[in-house]
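[worker-b] picked up task from shared queue
[worker-b] task type: protein-ligand structure
[worker-b] ligand name resolved to pyridoxal-5'-phosphate; SMILES cross-checked against name lookup, match
[worker-b] sequence length check passed
[worker-b] input payload:
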Amino acid sequence: MRGGEPVRRKEFPSWPIYDERELEALRAVLESGKWGIGGERKAEFERRFAEYHGVRFGVAVVNGTAALEISLRAAGVPAGSKVLMPAYTFMATATASIYCNLIPKFVDIDPDTYTIDPKAMEESITGDEKAVIPVHIAGCPADMERITSIAERNGLVVVEDACQAWGAEWGGRRVGSFGDLSAFSFQSSKNITSGEGGIILTDDKELYEKAWSYHNCGRRMKGLWYEHFIPGTNCRMTEFQAAILLVQLERLPEQTRIRNERAAYLTRKLSRIDGITPLKRPEKVTNHAYHLYIFRYDEEAFGGLPREVFIEALNAEGIPCSPGYRPLYKLPAFQRLGEIPFIPRELVREMDYSKVRLPNTERACYKEAVWLRQNELLGSEEDMDDIVAAVEKIKDNVDELL
Ligand SMILES: Cc1ncc(COP(=O)(O)O)c(C=O)c1O
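[worker-b] inference finished, payload out:
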């Protein structure tokens, strides 16, 4: 505790993980002279990543944010309509909508899983909504059966935010295969990374061709170079990124298996500590991506010790952890949309979030959530024991911190 010897001085496995294979792959691209268009790796990665998720088509782009934006454009969600989404997510889930002239409408989360609550989603539908973005937060699939069935009954496009959920499964089926389109991220912290990067998956050929066109300056697949059919943008992934990702994709299944094993071990042990409740893993989740390992902290069981002090103490014991998100609607970015000149004024009026209150989201953000990162789960069982020992030590010595 304060001034004493920490439970742990050793580092957890560092991230990213790479070896000669990435180096070789990069060298091959460099020497090919085909660093962008004209190379074959991007198309190969699109094929392999889509196949891995049981989906027909992939469009590799510059990041997960662009994947979300292009998905909404390709789906043809009309400007001015509302998009249902959780507020417990990275800001890009919502800003992608704003960049498409759509209005984020925030829905509360299930307090046990932190994914969008399908009942709350259904209750919030008024008829102005045209899409929903369920987020597979921390790598845990949202309840895609209920969400897609509500979406179908209400004519909503479904864009999965799978930016944290490569390979995660709901009932044996991989995420990315439930929605009309889905978006994944390969940013530096992600479980499969090329520094920056993203991909859109879809089973629908027409949506695929639209997404492809939007990410490639509005061109058509077999059209001429300077023939532009829609006002697209340039979000093409480079061959360097694709080359690294092809290698990283080979590592993903084994790393995911380890994360799942360590998470199960950690959950067994942490659950025995009064005041610590790991997020529920629904029975239907047959594979979890564990981009994050999140547990719920109950300050009452720790003698009233505020979560922020608990987190500081856990870090001091050598266990990297953080409190995670703030509710999106409370962030200055979403409170001050009126100051942003490019957003049409009539949409700004609909985006007054000053009165939004989502109790489960706020409890998670301000009181409960404690995040561990995916690379910690790549450690050994002894490393997991250190996490448990550090939490127990804080609990046993809580008086010192109060
Ligand atoms: C849930 C979620 N959505 C969207 C994104 C955006 O991805 P990127 O950072 O690749 O733009 C991220 C990544 O940080 C994310 O975690």
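[worker-b] attaching auto-annotations
[worker-b] Residues 63 and 327 are 23 Å apart (CA to CA).
[worker-b] releasing lock
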